[in-house]
Write a structure and sequence with these properties.
CATH architecture of chain A: Sandwich
Radius of gyration of chain A: 21 Å
Order of helices and strands of chain A: HEEHEEEEEEEEEEH
Strand order of the largest sheet of chain A: 2-3-10-5-8
Strand content of chain A: 25-35%
CATH class of chain A: Mainly Beta
Distance between the termini of chain A: 10 Å
Oligomer: homodimer
CATH topology of chain A: Jelly Rolls
Number of domains of chain A: 1
Chain lengths: ~200, ~200
């Protein structure tokens, strides 16, 4: 819309028509199931109609139920994730709070509670349907479906969008962990939200 | 533990024994299902073993799955709530983000979207199993089970513990809404956490 404020009269008219067309396109996209529906977000949404993807993590189905980049949340973000048997998150850490509620299945939380220069051998916590777990801020961890059926979890994080540092193994130094930001499920809409601000 | 640093030698010994006893009692309480287990909180907990109560709201069963006053969360808080048919939250507002995930049943979200000096007649949004809803910050709202079976929701809020302003009806001025803080389910542990700091 910046175009409207500069240029000659005729180019302003063209710019105005162009901008309005863009705006109409944007709003129709936003309300008709765009992957980045940050404006015109309905108050109530059917979770089964939300986009879902593995985002390159084998055996994962991720859905952002209420997100920062996708939906304009400022302080919390909610994910619904399903891990097939054997599927796991990367070994990773983040400086936000994270709470899981296990809806279905079972698995293991691997949590490195030591505070040296690398995560070290993790402690194993069995997780199960109707359990809740919290991950202490900045502790390296991994959630894995070590059971025989799908593991489904509802995850809440604070301070979205998430900034994740990933480790190749439990003995990689913290300083060598790689920042992945925006994370895979935020990539597409993060780019679009950046464009919006140009 | 302040007792240990004052008094004569013999009274110090008594005080030390007394303090250690208190401390042991405190830790055993914390790990064996105390209502305020903020210290020694296990990483994984069985939700079905958590305390639950109506907290004076007819037809409500509330459980704090991961909370600020109860469990030491700083940025997010998670509740599991079940509303019997006809049960409802008060009409209320709060300045934090709130996201619901409906696990079972159906109901209605009443949401006052106008921004005058009082909430006014609310818009009604049907909510249903597998839906998600977010409440815009500071909008007066009420969730009610208008169905025939239990309505079960998992609720995430930001910036806990929650500060709730309640309304007698939709036409009560915002300035007359009553602050209830700490909210009913935080009362017991809020008092204890205050005592801890004395």
């Amino acid at each position: 819309m910046i175009l409207l404020s500069v240029g000659s009269s005729s180019s302003s008219q063209i710019a105005a028509i162009f901008s309005v067309t863009l705006l109409l396109f944007y709003f129709s996209e936003a309300t008709l199931g765009s992957p980045c529906p940050i404006d015109g977000l309905p108050i109530v949404r059917n979770i089964s109609e939300l986009p879902q993807d593995s985002y390159g993590i084998p055996g994962l189905t991720h859905m952002t139920v209420a997100g920062s980049v996708l939906h304009g949340m400022k302080e919390v973000e909610i994910w619904l994730q399903t891990f097939a048997p054997g599927a796991a998150t990367p070994i990773h850490r983040h400086s936000c709070e994270e709470v899981f509620v296990v809806l279905k299945g079972s698995g293991t939380l691997y949590l490195a509670e030591t505070h040296g220069s690398f995560p070290g051998k993790p402690v194993e916590f069995p997780i199960f349907a109707n359990s809740t777990l919290h991950v202490p801020i900045n502790d390296a961890h991994q959630v894995k479906n070590t059971g025989n059926e799908d593991l489904q979890v509802l995850v809440t994080i604070s301070r979205p969008p998430i900034k994740i540092f990933t480790y190749d193994d439990w003995f990689m130094p913290h300083t060598a962990a790689k920042l992945k930001f925006p994370f895979f499920w935020d990539e597409q809409c993060f780019q679009e939200s950046q464009k919006d601000e140009l």
